[in-house]
Design a protein that fits this description.
119 residues, Transcriptional regulator, WH-like_DNA-bd_sf, transcription regulation, Arc Repressor Mutant, subunit A, WH_DNA-bd_sf, transcription, single chain, alpha+beta
Length: 119
């Protein structure tokens, strides 16, 4: 039996991380979850207007990767809230650094709330 890890493209940690959250929408969803949004309707109402099919796809991927968990909060009809796991919470410093970089180099970008940027 081979004990070597299997990688999709390579063993590079940047490549493997980007394979999980390097698309146009995933970090926006993670930002919103860190900012307190929990339900599908909360997430779909973000100013970036993520298409509903993309949102559903990203939530499934994040759940499959163990970055979020899906918990039923209503049973008839079934409704879920999405919560960050520890693995998802550990992405906050990445989001903070991206925000700092954007504020420094992208003119006119809005400043995140102070609580979001605390280390």
């Amino acid at each position: 039996m081979d004990n070597k890890p299997s990688f999709k493209r390579s063993g590079c940690p940047i490549v493997n991380s980007l394979d999980i959250f390097g698309d146009k929408w995933t970090l926006v969803v993670l930002r919103d979850l860190h900012c307190g949004k929990k339900t599908y309707s909360d997430l779909v109402s973000s100013p970036e207007k993520i298409p509903t099919n993309r949102l559903a796809e990203r939530l499934k991927r994040l759940e499959a990767e163990g970055i979020i968990s899906k918990v039923a909060y209503q049973h008839r009809p079934k409704r879920y809230e999405y919560l960050l796991t520890q693995k998802g919470k550990d992405l906050l410093p990445i989001l903070q650094e991206l925000a700092r970089w954007g504020n420094k180099y992208v003119e006119g970008s809005w400043i995140p709330p102070e609580w979001f940027m605390k280390v």
